[in-house]
Every structure is written in structure tokens, then in C-alpha cells.
């Protein structure tokens, strides 16, 4: 399982980084609304990781699938946050000030506030998507015998 979540977690992070750099190249990286696509990237990556794990295992347990989703998204979140920290502290120090200005805050909170927001949003997205995808991928407890107990 560790190979799967490591591979897909790093792949998600690379795609997130590429998406951010592409939006910077176009000039849209100052608009936080475009970070909604990050959820789509997370979703595709987590779903592919879960499907890969389910295809490799004969007995797909809910706990293992949930754990895989959390680890995949968590790793992607941490790698992307480290990249953004390096970007905001070393490459473009004005980026965080521009983002905070677009949020409309009147007080100085600094780059750390954006990094904390990235971590919280990444883990929240991971949790919601993992719960949703596990409902799709888990095996049903409904049996053919259960149909005989219904009202006709």
C-alpha cells in the first residue's frame, strides 16, 4: 500500500505544482478562485489510487481504502505546501502579500497564514473526497437473502 500512496501522492503534488506554475505563466496565480481546480486534481488522484489498490487486492477492506486515501492526499498536501513555502519565501515574496490583499484582510498575517490555509484546505479536501469515494468503492453488505425480508 505504501508504494501506491507514495506514487499517487507525489504524482498529485507534481500536477498541482505544474498547474500552479502554468497559472503563473498565464498570470492567473493571484486569483484564489482558480484553486478550486486543486480539488479536481486531488479527486482524480485519490480515486485512481483507490482503484489501483482495489484492483490489486482480492479483499478490499474499508479501513485500508480509507487509510490509502488519507495518506495519498496527505502526502500530496505536504509536498505541495513545502513547494509553496519555498516559492513564497525564496522566489516571489510579493505573492503572499498580493493573495492576502485579495482576501481583504487589513492586518499583517504573513506567509505562514497562507501555508496554514493550504494545509487545512488540503487535508479537508482529502478527508471529504476519501469519504465520498469509499462509499462508491466499498463492497455492499446487501445480500440476496435480504430481499426476502422486504414488504411486497
UniProtKB/TrEMBL annotation:
TM helices/strands, residue ranges: 5-22, 28-49, 70-91, 111-133
Pfam family of the protein (one): DUF4199
InterPro entries reported in the protein's UniProt record: DUF4199
Keywords, alphabetical: Membrane, Transmembrane, Transmembrane helix
Keyword tRNA processing assigned: no
The keyword Plastid is assigned to this record: no
Protein's UniProt name: DUF4199 domain-containing protein
Organism this protein belongs to: Cochleicola gelatinilyticus
Lineage, opening ranks: Bacteria, Pseudomonadati, Bacteroidota, Flavobacteriia, Flavobacteriales
